[in-house]
User: Which sequence fits this backbone?
């Protein structure tokens, strides 16, 4: 059973702090990795994608990928109350004709003013 | 300008009824999905269609029958609804075979079976 694991939280950080969200995956041949943000009662929206080992930065968000350790993380700098949401890690299992995004159970982040 | 749209947004029905959820995407994607999100927020794939053809069926009860009249539409019909079917159902779309493509989600349909 291919799995994507995340700490369910809740993770609580003060405004302005760095929030660190972690994810591990079991399928070694996974090629692409995504972070989705989901506000309560809303649909998931993509905030970051990463395909190569290392860091990828976009504004206050940095995604980090380590394929050897099967680990992907998301850092949110200068956290804002509007960042409070559930963050879903998603992994593309094996690509090609069997494309399927498998999601972790999500980490609930609360940013306190 | 909605990319992936689902109807209805809310659906309340009695056990044993049959209901349908419709989904349409205008992104030109060739693959559409149905995901189920339970009360614990776990998002799990149910079905995937590529160019009207079923490519993924994740051990979903036969009471659930997806139908794709064309690659821009994927509907979900549910027979004999049960209490455990209560969840939020999300439609999504993407390009198949492009391993680095993300999925775009509709706004979700909150199904409540009473």
Assistant:
């Amino acid at each position: 059973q291919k799995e994507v694991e995340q700490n369910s939280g809740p993770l609580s950080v003060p405004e302005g702090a760095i929030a660190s969200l972690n994810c591990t995956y079991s399928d070694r041949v996974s090629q692409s990795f995504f972070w989705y943000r989901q506000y309560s009662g809303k649909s998931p929206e993509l905030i970051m994608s990463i395909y190569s080992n290392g860091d990828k930065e976009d504004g206050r968000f940095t995604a980090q990928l380590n394929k050897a350790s099967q680990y992907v993380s998301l850092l949110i700098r200068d956290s804002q109350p509007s960042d409070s949401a559930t963050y879903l890690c998603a992994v593309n299992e094996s690509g090609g004709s069997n494309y399927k995004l498998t999601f972790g159970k999500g980490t609930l982040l609360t940013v306190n003013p | 300008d909605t990319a992936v749209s689902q109807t209805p947004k809310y659906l309340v029905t009695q056990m044993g009824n049959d209901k349908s959820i419709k989904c349409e995407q205008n992104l030109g994607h060739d693959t559409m999905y149905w995901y189920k999100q339970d009360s614990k927020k776990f998002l799990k794939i149910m079905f995937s269609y590529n160019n009207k053809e079923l490519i993924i069926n994740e051990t979903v009860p036969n009471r659930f029958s997806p139908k794709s009249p064309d690659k821009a539409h994927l509907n979900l019909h549910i027979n004999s609804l049960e209490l455990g079917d209560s969840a939020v159902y999300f439609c999504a779309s993407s390009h198949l075979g492009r391993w680095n493509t993300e999925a775009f989600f509709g706004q979700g349909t909150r199904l409540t079976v009473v």
